[in-house]
Design goal:
By secondary structure, the chain is an alpha+beta fold. It contains seven helices and 15 strands.
């Protein structure tokens, strides 16, 4: 006889077999990409225990969008290290309407680089790599990520200062975890220190686009090295991505800075400093 678990699933008391602790519980709901277990976001294949309160997280919900974008950031980082070997990793969190990832690169990324990276990301997405969470000790993490000095710094800060808020965002509170991107044969294609959760597979990223790149100081301090940051956006459908890009285009048309320049009201000469406006006769009061 199969063992049974009593859980609460989306507000309904339910008895399930232990064998169904994977995403089988939501096999008929492909929009569910993760769980909230006792209030904490978790991977879809998390192990459940007696009495757990489980809520589904759909890809179009706020939590679901954050997970989609976080997973997209991992795919971006994998693409960067594939096309630009030797590039070292910073952090890559989800943000409003998108994500970014910071890299220690030998040179700034060009618009042409972003096009190539987006193509490589789509290859990884089509490869249907599986995200696998592993709990590791501090020593194991430092050994596995010995070639990633910024990741090792985060581990050391977490160990020395406890769960510092800025570090917790990247590596999480409590236990250290590494996420592997696994090929279909189970081989590790790429890995990153991360708190998760993530999508079950890369193929569940429906629509992604890289937007721009810029410089960014490591951990936001000018005392630290300057890294290269790539911004991207990801959405649950291609239509949603198109709508977002159209919104940005319309907002750009109404940008007062652009309109002011086009109407010969003011300009921003680089000679006097970035962001300092010089008003022309038409723009005088």
């Amino acid at each position: 006889m199969m063992s049974q678990l009593a859980i609460t699933l989306d507000g309904v008391s339910k008895s399930v077999t232990i064998e169904k602790y994977t995403g089988e519980l939501f096999a008929d709901r492909p929009e569910v990409i993760a769980l909230r277990v006792n209030g904490t976001p978790r991977d879809l294949n998390s192990v459940l225990v007696e009495g757990d309160v489980v809520e589904s997280i759909t890809i179009d919900s706020p939590d679901g969008l954050a997970i989609l974008r976080h997973s997209s950031a991992h795919v971006l980082a994998q693409a960067v290290q594939t096309l630009f070997p030797g590039t070292r990793l910073g952090i890559g969190p989800p943000i409003k309407d998108g994500f970014y990832y910071d890299f220690d690169s030998s040179k700034p990324f060009t618009p042409e680089d972003l096009v190539s990276l987006e193509k490589e990301m789509n290859k990884i997405i089509k490869a249907n790599q599986r995200f696998r969470r592993r709990v590791v000790t501090e020593q194991e993490a430092l050994f596995e990520l010995a070639g990633e000095p910024f990741k090792c710094e985060l581990i050391a800060i977490k160990s020395d200062a406890g769960d510092e808020s800025s570090v917790e965002v990247e590596v999480g509170a409590g236990e250290l975890t590494i996420y592997d991107n696994l090929n279909r044969d189970g081989e590790i294609a790429w890995k990153d220190l991360c708190r998760g959760p993530h999508l079950p597979t890369t193929k569940l990223i429906p629509a992604v686009k890289l937007m721009r790149s810029s410089g960014a100081y490591w951990r936001g301090s000018e005392k630290n090295p300057m890294l290269q940051r790539i911004y991207g956006t990801a959405w649950p459908t291609s239509e949603a991505l198109d709508q977002y890009l159209h919104f940005l285009e319309e907002a750009e048309k109404r940008d007062h800075r652009r309109l002011g320049i086009e109407l010969d009201l003011f300009s921003f000469p680089e000679e006097i400093g970035s962001g300092l406006a010089v008003f022309h006769p038409k723009g005088g009061v």
